[in-house]
């Protein structure tokens, strides 16, 4: 299957209700300088939705915040295949940049790769734990 390196509108997390729910009931993983808050839910529309944010606390000028957001979105676009895989669940992820310095693109991409691998591993552990606890799946 051919990999598509796209970031369509459907993959963007924009709903205020969904973002609030993400921060209330989501889990968090971090590899400096990026922290990912994520939530997995059963849905008839499986896939991944991602939002990116950079705080004013770290970059006062909007030009720099926008630059970091562009870098994060590009890293996601190139490494999104690491988060794909579940046919019946929707993954919602918020990427937060938490440093005062802008990393080079290749270093940031490496951080995103490690973070996405960590998220995928955590999601796989959770799904296998659910499978162990639920005796209906054994039949």
Lay out the secondary structure.
Blueprint (H helix, E strand, L loop, with lengths): L15 H10 L1 E5 L2 E9 L4 E8 L7 H18 L9 E9 L7 H29 L6
Parallel strand pairs: 3-4
Antiparallel strand pairs: 1-2, 2-4
Helix pairs in contact: 2-3
Can you offer a commentary on this structure?
- This protein is an alpha+beta fold and 139 residues long.
- Helix content is 41%, strand content 22%.
- It contains 3 helices and 4 strands; from the N terminus they run αβββαβα.
- The chain has helices at residues 16-25, 62-79, 105-133, and strands at 27-31, 34-42, 47-54, 89-97.
- A 4-stranded mixed β-sheet has the order 1-2-4-3.
- α2 packs across α3.
- The longest helix is centred in the last third of the chain and has 29 residues, at 105-133.
- The two termini are 32 Å apart.
- The model is unreliable at 132-139 (pLDDT under 50).
Task: Give the key terms.
disordered C terminus, 3 helices, alpha+beta, single chain, 22% strand, 139 residues
Mean pLDDT: 88
Structure class: alpha+beta
Tell me the distance between the termini.
Answer: 32 Å
Major sheet strand order: 1-2-4-3
Q: Tell me, briefly, the overall form.
A: globular
Secondary-structure element sequence?
A: HEEEHEH
């Amino acid at each position: 299957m051919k990999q598509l390196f796209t970031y369509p509108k459907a993959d963007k997390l924009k709903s205020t209700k969904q973002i609030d729910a993400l921060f209330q009931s989501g889990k968090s993983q971090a590899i400096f300088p990026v922290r990912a808050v994520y939530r997995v839910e059963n849905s008839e529309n499986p896939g991944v939705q991602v939002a990116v944010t950079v705080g004013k606390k770290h970059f006062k000028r909007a030009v720099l915040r926008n630059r970091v957001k562009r870098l994060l979105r590009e890293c996601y676009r190139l490494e999104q295949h690491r988060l794909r895989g579940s046919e019946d669940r929707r993954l919602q992820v918020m990427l937060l940049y938490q440093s005062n310095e802008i990393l080079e693109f290749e270093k940031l991409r490496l951080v995103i790769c490690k973070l996405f691998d960590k998220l995928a591993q955590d999601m796989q552990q959770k799904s296998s734990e659910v499978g162990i606890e639920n005796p209906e799946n054994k039949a």
